Amino acid sequence: MVVTYSSNDIKIHIIKSFELLEPLSGIKKNMKFFFSEKATVIMFICNHCPYVKHINTELVHLANHYILKGVSFIAINSNDEKKYPEDSPKNMNKISHKLGYTFPYFFDEKQEVAKYYGAQCTPEFFIFNGIGHLCYHGKFDDSSPGNKLPVTGYNVKKILKTILKGIKITKIIQKPSYGCNIKWKT
Fold first, then answer.
1. Is the dihedral of CA 99, 100, 103, 108 positive or negative?
2. For 140-146, what is the mean pLDDT?
């Protein structure tokens, strides 16, 4: 199912940490240890979504580039693994290895992180400045499977460049996300 949404009343404005399973290591870790003093990108992704698969190569490239500049990237999968076994922690571990994720990929088993941030679909991005204020909420770029636009990460790059230049973002910038809906538990 494809979800497109635009929210004019963002409920969160401040970054919040949770303790989540990080399948690559097999242990629970506190997200706050991955927050950056420059900028933190929290992204809701999963393994099975064709929209995530469509951006994965450029996402890894972009993350690797900005990690070197002190930006942190945190990926979170909040899908119900019972209904979508491809999104299980075991398969998250496989995907992390296969795609060369250099960022933590957490499993939100209780779906509390997705609920706190108001995530609706995958992929969906939340970018916070160094003091933890939300600056951007939305899509990676305008590309999607089948629309023939190149995957560039333009929206994410633009915000990160602005933050890294020290330009203060005073209003949350939103670009409606689209992709697969979060697979909520019943």
1. positive
2. 96
pLDDT in tens, 64-76: 999 999 999 999 9
The CATH number assigned to the domain with range 20-181 reads 3.40.30.10
The DSSP code for 151 is P
User: DSSP class of residue 182?
Assistant: P
Neighbours of 171 (CB within 10 A): 6
Q: Which amino acid is at 162?
A: T
Per-residue confidence (pLDDT) for residue 186, from 0 to 100: 86
Distance (Å, whole) CA 116 – CA 14: 10
Query: Does position 2 have pLDDT exceeding 90, yes or no?
Result: no
Q: How many CA atoms lie within 13 A of 91 on its CB side?
A: 12
Report the alpha-carbon distance of residue 43 to residue 36 in Å, rounded: 15
Domain parsing of the chain, residue ranges: 20-181
Of residues 63, 46, 44, 51, the one with CA closest to residue 124: 44
- State how far Cα 24 lies from the chain centre: 17
